[in-house]
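User: Before I run my own analysis I want an independent prediction to cross-check against. Here's the chain; please return only the structure tokens and, at the end, one sentence I can use as a sanity check.
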Amino acid sequence: MHLVDTSVWIHVLRRPGIARIQQLLKPMIVGGNAAITEWVLLELMVGIRTSESADSLIRKMEPLHRLPFPAEKWNEAWKLATSLRKEGISASASDCFISIVAIAHQATLVHCDKNFELIAGHSKLQTLDWTPHASTLKKGSAGTGH
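Assistant: Structure tokens:
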């Protein structure tokens, strides 16, 4: 299972010209191997444009598995945040939350956010880093598949 972070969805939903990330994500969705957590959906809702509908976004996300945050994992999230801080890594609360969801469900976190690689280096988080695809595309090669 792959937990798809907000940083990937932004490139898929908000900028439809980023074909490479869409191409990489599509087989995961079609194969039933893509998931989100409620926090990712909340982050997407916060960024919704006035011309968009919340119901439309929810419908787009319906085919995906929803990975809940197990209540007994709060202690692990707190420990992760404090241990990262002691290592000099200032991870956001949402990044710690999403990381613990992925770890709890033994899901690989798919992201375009270098902070998750830092977290993975200090935890059991397994990642799939699509940052190079997003960086390449930001430099003007959108739609080329590089």
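Sanity check: The chain has one domain: 2-141.
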